[in-house]
Design goal:
Elements lengths: L1 H20 L2 E3 L1 H16 L4 E3 L7 E3 L5 E5 L7 E11 L2 E13 L1 E7 L14 E7 L11 H4 L3 E2 L14 E2 L9 E8 L2 E9 L8 E6 L5 E6 L5 E4 L1
Parallel strand pairs: 11-15
Antiparallel strand pairs: 1-3, 2-6, 4-5, 5-6, 7-8, 9-10, 11-12, 12-13, 13-14, 14-15
């Protein structure tokens, strides 16, 4: 019995000494609470944040140690790594990295069929669905207004989330359409017509088969749908 009491007193003394020596203490619970608060500022309240079971307790003999979280430049969805940094007197005295998972859900446009390059994103080829956003996709690029009504820049596979990276503004000149060709030579302007042989955005090169003689000329597409040739 005396031995047990001696061990208990010794343990209590050591614990008290440890607490007295450690001027700053961050518990596992406090770290998790603060981490979730900081993450919510970026991902909102609807995202599901999954932390590891244990991050750990951290004690420092220095007084007034400050804890910061470093998210880096990564997209905060899917599997991410968060840096937990402890600073004292404007110096970083410790850093640990913690793996977490963020399930971010958002209403996004999803391709209902494979969409060809140049095809307009419309109700005919996409649908609005609530999906989990993977870490490979920037959530800010999935907004409806950034995608709907635009032209596919590449082939978009059925079932894919359509982002602003995959679309572009409608072509200024479309293949097969009749266009006005404006030839500029000094102060002289000559207008003629022809058929565009390729799609083009404003500023891009267009090949045009001229009416009457079938000659092919090359110019630049303008915003108003004309083809400009400067000599």
């Amino acid at each position: 019995m005396k031995t047990f009491l001696y061990i208990l007193i010794l343990f209590s003394t050591l614990l008290l000494a440890f607490k007295l020596e450690a001027e700053t203490y961050f518990s596992d619970e406090i770290i998790k609470e603060q981490l979730i608060i900081e993450l919510r500022k970026s991902v909102g309240n609807e995202a599901e944040i999954i932390l590891p079971k244990t991050i750990g307790n951290f004690s420092f003999k220095e007084n007034n140690v400050v804890m910061n979280f470093d998210f880096g430049n990564q997209i905060l969805s899917g599997n991410v790594i968060v840096g937990i940094e402890f600073w004292w007197n404007q110096q970083k005295i410790r850093r640990v990295e913690v793996p977490i998972r963020i399930k971010l859900y958002k209403e996004v446009l999803v391709a209902t069929k494979t969409i060809s390059r140049g095809e307009v994103i419309s109700n005919e080829n996409c649908v609005l669905e609530k999906r989990e956003i993977p870490s490979s996709i920037d959530p800010t690029k999935t907004s409806f207004d950034l995608v709907f009504g635009k032209n596919a820049k590449y082939f978009i596979v059925k079932g894919s989330i359509i982002t602003s990276d995959l679309v572009q503004e409608p072509f200024a000149v479309k293949r097969g359409e009749k266009v006005r060709v404006v030839v500029l030579s000094g102060k002289v302007q000559i207008n003629t017509f022809g058929v565009a042989l390729n799609d083009a955005n404003a500023g891009e090169t267009v090949r045009v088969r001229r009416d009457g003689n079938n000659n092919i000329v090359v110019g630049l597409a303008s915003k108003d749908g004309c083809v400009i040739i400067s000599k």
